[in-house]
Amino acid sequence: MRLDKFLSHTGFGSRKEVKEILKKKVVCVNGKPEKNGKKSIDENKDAVSVYGEVVNYKKFVYYMLNKPKGVISATEDKLHRTVIDLISEVDQVPGLFPVGRLDKDTTGLLIITNDGELSHQLLSPKKKVPKLYQAKVAGLMTAEDVLVFSTGVTISGNEHCLPAKLMILETDVESETTLINLEIVEGKFHQVKRMVEAVGKKVVTLDRQSMGGLFLDSQLKKGSYRELTDEELANLRN
C-alpha cells in the first residue's frame, strides 16, 4: 500500500491533507523520516509513526449506514449512486461492500464492511439472523395477517417464507393505511414487499431498523454513517 493511502485510511485526512503532513517531515517508516507519499509499505509489518506516535492499521472496518432513498446497495454502478459512494474518501478502504441489499427505495440500517467472514455469518440462511423492518402499508393489516405471518406465508413464485413476527403499530381507518413492524430471519428478493402483497396489501415505505440485534442509531441522519463500537461489533459476531 502507498504511504499516502495508508495515512488517509488511518484518519489523517484527504490525499491533499496527507501531502501537507508529509512535507512537515513528521512521518517515519521503521524509524526513518519519509516524505514520499508514493513509497510502498507493508501495512501489516512496517512501523509507521506520525509526530512520534505509532499508527495502527485496521485490516477490517465496520460502518453503520442510514441508507437514504435513491441509492443502490452495490459497490459500483455506472448509472446510479451507490452506498459505497456515501463513504468519504478518508474512510474508503479496499474491498468495501454492503452486507446484503436494501432496495433502491428502501431506507435504514445497512452495514458496510470489508470483512467477508462477518458478512457470511450475517447472511447465511442457516444462521436465521433476525432483521426488523418498519413499513407503511396501503391497506388495513389484521390479526389474521399476524397469524398467517407467524406460521409462514407463501409469496409469489410459490416461495414459502419462514415464520415471521408481524406487529401492528398504528391503523388509520380513514386513509386505510397501517404502520407495522416485521421481523424476518431470511433475505429473499423483495421479501417484505412480497409478504405484504401475499395478504392483499402493498408496502408504501420501508425502513430497516435492525439486523442481528444491531439497531440503527437514532442520531444518524439519512445518508450518514459511523463506525461500529467495539460492543456493537462483539454483539454482531455473537
Chain-wise SSE layout:
Elements: H1 3-9, H2 15-23, E1 27-29, E2 32-33, E3 48-50, E4 53-54, E5 62-67, E6 97-98, E7 107-113, H3 116-123, E8 131-138, H4 143-151, E9 154-155, E10 159-160, E11 165-172, E12 177-184, H5 191-198, E13 202-211, E14 214-215, E15 225-227, H6 230-237
Helix pairs in contact: 1-2
Structure notes:
This protein is α+β, with helices and mostly antiparallel strands. Helices cover 21% and strands 29% of the residues. Strands 5, 6, 7, 8, 11, 12, 13, 14 and 15 form a nine-stranded mixed β-sheet that branches. The longest helix is centred in the N-terminal third of the chain and has 9 residues, at 15-23.
Q: What's the short story on this structure?
A:
21% of the residues lie in helices and 29% in strands.
How many H/I helical runs? 6
Cα(first) to Cα(last) distance is 32 Å
Radius of gyration, in Å, reads 22 Å
Order of helices and strands: HHEEEEEEEHEHEEEEHEEEH
Per DSSP E runs of 2 or more residues, the count of β-strands stands at: 15
The fraction of residues in strands falls at: 25-35%
Report the biggest beta sheet as strand number plus sense, adding barrel if it closes: 9 strands, mixed
Instruction: Identify low-pLDDT runs.
Output: none
Approximate shape:
elongated
Structural class: alpha+beta
Task: Quote the average pLDDT.
Answer: 94
Classify the helix fraction into a percent range: 10-25%
Primary descriptors:
single chain, 238 residues, alpha+beta, nine-stranded mixed β-sheet, four-stranded antiparallel β-sheet, 6 helices, 15 strands, 21% helix
